[in-house]
Amino acid sequence: MPPHSAVFPSVCDAEGRWHIAHPVKAALAACVRASMKGSAVEIVIRRQRRTRSSKQNRYYWSAVIGEIASCAGYRRQDAYQLHDALAFKFLPLPPCPITGSPRRQRTPETDTEEFSVYVDQVIQWAAETWGVVIPEAARVEPPANAEGRSPRQVDREQGWGVTA
Hints:
This protein is mainly alpha-helical. 43% of the residues lie in helices and 5% in strands.
Protein backbone atom coordinates (compact mmCIF):
# COMPACT_ATOMS: atom_id res chain seq x y z
CA MET A 1 0.00 0.00 0.00
CA PRO A 2 1.48 3.42 -0.94
CA PRO A 3 2.29 5.81 1.92
CA HIS A 4 -0.24 8.42 3.01
CA SER A 5 2.60 10.87 3.59
CA ALA A 6 6.28 11.07 2.80
CA VAL A 7 9.23 13.27 3.65
CA PHE A 8 11.64 14.52 1.00
CA PRO A 9 14.87 16.32 1.96
CA SER A 10 15.92 19.59 0.37
CA VAL A 11 18.05 22.63 1.20
CA CYS A 12 17.35 26.33 1.40
CA ASP A 13 20.49 28.41 0.75
CA ALA A 14 21.57 31.65 2.45
CA GLU A 15 19.69 33.72 -0.15
CA GLY A 16 16.46 31.83 0.50
CA ARG A 17 16.51 29.76 -2.69
CA TRP A 18 15.08 26.26 -2.36
CA HIS A 19 17.13 23.44 -3.88
CA ILE A 20 15.74 19.96 -4.46
CA ALA A 21 18.15 17.34 -5.85
CA HIS A 22 17.03 15.66 -9.09
CA PRO A 23 16.71 12.17 -7.52
CA VAL A 24 14.53 13.67 -4.77
CA LYS A 25 12.36 15.44 -7.39
CA ALA A 26 11.93 12.13 -9.20
CA ALA A 27 11.00 10.32 -5.97
CA LEU A 28 8.54 13.07 -5.06
CA ALA A 29 6.90 12.87 -8.48
CA ALA A 30 6.70 9.06 -8.28
CA CYS A 31 5.09 9.25 -4.84
CA VAL A 32 2.50 11.72 -6.07
CA ARG A 33 1.70 9.59 -9.14
CA ALA A 34 1.47 6.40 -7.07
CA SER A 35 -0.64 7.54 -4.14
CA MET A 36 -2.01 11.04 -4.52
CA LYS A 37 -3.97 10.96 -7.81
CA GLY A 38 -7.21 12.87 -7.55
CA SER A 39 -6.46 13.99 -3.99
CA ALA A 40 -6.07 17.38 -2.40
CA VAL A 41 -2.55 17.52 -0.94
CA GLU A 42 -0.72 19.86 1.40
CA ILE A 43 2.92 20.84 1.37
CA VAL A 44 4.60 21.34 4.76
CA ILE A 45 8.01 22.99 4.91
CA ARG A 46 10.00 22.94 8.14
CA ARG A 47 13.59 22.85 9.29
CA GLN A 48 15.04 19.37 9.16
CA ARG A 49 15.25 17.74 12.58
CA ARG A 50 18.40 15.97 13.55
CA THR A 51 17.55 12.85 15.52
CA ARG A 52 19.69 12.00 18.49
CA SER A 53 22.97 10.35 17.68
CA SER A 54 24.04 6.85 18.61
CA LYS A 55 26.83 8.43 20.69
CA GLN A 56 24.21 10.41 22.67
CA ASN A 57 22.21 7.22 23.14
CA ARG A 58 25.23 5.23 24.34
CA TYR A 59 26.20 7.99 26.79
CA TYR A 60 22.64 8.16 28.11
CA TRP A 61 22.25 4.42 28.65
CA SER A 62 25.77 3.64 29.89
CA ALA A 63 26.79 6.71 31.89
CA VAL A 64 23.56 8.45 32.87
CA ILE A 65 21.01 5.65 33.33
CA GLY A 66 23.73 3.15 34.26
CA GLU A 67 25.09 5.29 37.10
CA ILE A 68 21.70 6.32 38.47
CA ALA A 69 20.39 2.75 38.29
CA SER A 70 23.44 1.48 40.13
CA CYS A 71 23.12 4.07 42.90
CA ALA A 72 19.35 3.60 43.21
CA GLY A 73 19.62 -0.19 43.48
CA TYR A 74 18.13 -1.13 40.12
CA ARG A 75 19.20 -4.37 38.53
CA ARG A 76 20.76 -3.94 35.08
CA GLN A 77 17.81 -5.62 33.38
CA ASP A 78 15.39 -3.22 35.11
CA ALA A 79 17.14 -0.02 34.00
CA TYR A 80 14.41 0.55 31.44
CA GLN A 81 11.93 1.10 34.28
CA LEU A 82 14.13 3.92 35.56
CA HIS A 83 14.34 5.39 32.05
CA ASP A 84 10.55 5.20 31.73
CA ALA A 85 10.00 6.94 35.07
CA LEU A 86 12.45 9.71 34.18
CA ALA A 87 10.83 10.22 30.79
CA PHE A 88 7.42 10.57 32.48
CA LYS A 89 8.97 13.14 34.83
CA PHE A 90 10.85 15.23 32.27
CA LEU A 91 9.04 14.58 28.94
CA PRO A 92 5.37 14.71 29.93
CA LEU A 93 2.57 15.06 27.41
CA PRO A 94 -0.97 16.15 28.25
CA PRO A 95 -3.00 13.31 29.81
CA CYS A 96 -4.90 11.02 27.49
CA PRO A 97 -8.12 12.86 26.63
CA ILE A 98 -10.13 9.63 26.85
CA THR A 99 -8.78 7.92 29.97
CA GLY A 100 -6.92 10.75 31.69
CA SER A 101 -3.88 8.48 31.95
CA PRO A 102 -0.48 10.16 32.05
CA ARG A 103 1.53 10.12 28.83
CA ARG A 104 5.08 10.99 27.87
CA GLN A 105 7.10 11.76 24.82
CA ARG A 106 9.18 8.85 23.55
CA THR A 107 12.89 9.66 23.61
CA PRO A 108 13.51 8.31 20.06
CA GLU A 109 11.15 11.04 18.87
CA THR A 110 13.32 13.81 20.32
CA ASP A 111 15.87 15.63 18.21
CA THR A 112 19.46 16.20 19.32
CA GLU A 113 18.66 19.46 21.11
CA GLU A 114 15.56 18.14 22.91
CA PHE A 115 17.42 15.01 23.96
CA SER A 116 20.36 17.07 25.27
CA VAL A 117 17.99 19.18 27.39
CA TYR A 118 16.32 16.02 28.70
CA VAL A 119 19.68 14.41 29.60
CA ASP A 120 20.82 17.62 31.35
CA GLN A 121 17.59 17.65 33.39
CA VAL A 122 18.11 14.00 34.37
CA ILE A 123 21.74 14.65 35.36
CA GLN A 124 20.76 17.67 37.48
CA TRP A 125 17.92 15.72 39.12
CA ALA A 126 20.27 12.81 39.89
CA ALA A 127 22.78 15.15 41.53
CA GLU A 128 20.15 16.98 43.59
CA THR A 129 18.06 13.93 44.54
CA TRP A 130 20.60 11.12 44.88
CA GLY A 131 23.93 12.95 45.05
CA VAL A 132 24.94 11.05 41.91
CA VAL A 133 27.70 12.73 39.95
CA ILE A 134 27.63 11.75 36.30
CA PRO A 135 30.68 12.63 34.22
CA GLU A 136 30.24 14.99 31.28
CA ALA A 137 29.78 13.31 27.92
CA ALA A 138 33.06 14.81 26.67
CA ARG A 139 34.90 12.96 29.45
CA VAL A 140 33.26 9.62 28.75
CA GLU A 141 33.70 7.41 25.71
CA PRO A 142 30.65 5.21 25.93
CA PRO A 143 31.16 1.63 24.81
CA ALA A 144 29.78 0.65 21.43
CA ASN A 145 28.50 -2.65 22.77
CA ALA A 146 25.45 -3.84 24.70
CA GLU A 147 26.42 -1.63 27.66
CA GLY A 148 25.39 1.51 25.77
CA ARG A 149 22.08 0.33 24.33
CA SER A 150 18.72 0.19 25.95
CA PRO A 151 17.68 -3.12 27.50
CA ARG A 152 14.80 -3.30 24.98
CA GLN A 153 17.21 -2.81 22.09
CA VAL A 154 19.47 -5.59 23.37
CA ASP A 155 16.43 -7.86 23.80
CA ARG A 156 15.31 -7.19 20.23
CA GLU A 157 18.80 -7.93 18.93
CA GLN A 158 18.79 -11.22 20.81
CA GLY A 159 15.36 -12.14 19.45
CA TRP A 160 13.32 -11.62 22.64
CA GLY A 161 9.82 -10.31 22.07
CA VAL A 162 10.13 -10.76 18.32
CA THR A 163 7.32 -12.67 16.70
CA ALA A 164 7.88 -14.49 13.45
